[in-house]
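README, section 4: Worked example with a bound small molecule

Sections 1 through 3 covered apo chains. Here we extend the same pipeline to holo records, where the ligand is supplied as SMILES alongside the sequence. The molecule in this example is zinc ion. Nothing else about the input changes; the structure line simply encodes the ligand pose together with the chain.
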Amino acid sequence: MNHELRIYNSLTNKKEIFKELIPGKVGIYVCGPTVYSSSHMGHARSAIVFDLIIRFLKFVGYQTKYVRNFTDVDDKIIAKAAEEGIAVEKIANKYKLEYLEDVKNLGCLSPDFQPCVSENINEIIELIKKIIASGYGYVVAGEVYYNISKFSDYGKLSNQSTDSMLSHTRLEINPNKKNDLDFALWKSSKEGDPSWNSPWGKGRPGWHIECSSMSTKYLGETFDIHGGGRDLIFPHHENEIAQSECTSNEKFANYWIHNGLININKEKMSKSIGNIVNIQDALKIWNKNIIKIFFLTHHYRTPVDLSSEKLKEIKKTLIKIKKKISDTKNIRERKMDDFRKLWINAMRDDFNSAKAFGYYFKYINERALTKSNIDLIEEFEITMGIFGWRNEINDDTSSEESFEQKFDQERIQKIILERNMARQIKNWKKADDLRLQAEELGIELIDTKNGTSWKRK
Ligand SMILES: [Zn+2]
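The generated complex, written as structure tokens:
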């Protein structure tokens, strides 16, 4: 089978014909989660996008080697452990297992290797030693930093000058750094934090070094594809390139693939807004194939706006085409060969699953289907990772509560709590403002002698 495939490479900002390093083989490294809380729909999108890419690479005949890491040593994990009074390793392990369960429940293929930072400390220390020996790293007070002014290509992935990077980054003032954008390769640890012995004292790796180390360990100094969410381009991926290329003098990854980010009802998903949709919660309401098809009907690079309403629409479309497929008759043969050619071409053009799904819906809707068409439909479903959805999705809508309602309830409870506190300290202005906030959500607050209740207006 002809392999020709075009991939949008974030490094050159162009679609390029994909050329693998070793004929017939593809090595791909994807940045995985930092395991300090339950995984959300942003994680789901990344897992689903790279699952699609792996499936399609296999479909066109490549042998793939897929590596996705876990960041299990990180400030956020340490903070969470302190907050809950639990050991850091326990927190990391809990959320690592949860993530594995979540992506399995989404029906994604497992990567071939899923390394963790805590199991690769020696390799990381060796790489830091090399960076120092090459003149790119410096040691200050038990910590090691990368000197970005030595790496002339710094900024080539995010296509920015150092001035622009500085203006887009929140940096803590650190007198130990030679340049403001220098970043830690090794950090000293506070008493009680996870730490390992190193030539520079007890401590732990900085965030970026793990991916340079683990990608090289499994895929070599130069490999085919590096992936991750768009939010990782700067500084994380920029720093990975600097760390890897300064010691190897070779190109790090040949192609960089970045998936777009997600909004929830046109708002950024964030803890402070209170609109984070966890994978587990979404799967309680929606079948995994509805979530997958929702993401795959968008091109992987575009931002997506997720809402219960849109998932409902996907479900309606699926119920309609399920009926159409089950109406298959042994009528005269009508071939769907053009369907096959069209969806494969769409996927060969930078994995355009949105276009491919467009053909899937169109052909099923417009044609009288024959038994032989079913094989073509199933080949598509297997390749896209949605095979079997017709047995799993029915038109029962009883479990379809929306996650927006849950967010509202959480927001209202928060408003009531804050308002009670304001009233206790007689801050009437704040209490009134909070009442207005509730009204904007369409909620009327009712004060009684037993406390505050609410009703929808
Ligand atoms: Zn990474």
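What to look for in the output: The radius of gyration is 25 Å. The chain is about 45% helix and 15% strand.

Section 5 describes how to batch many such records.
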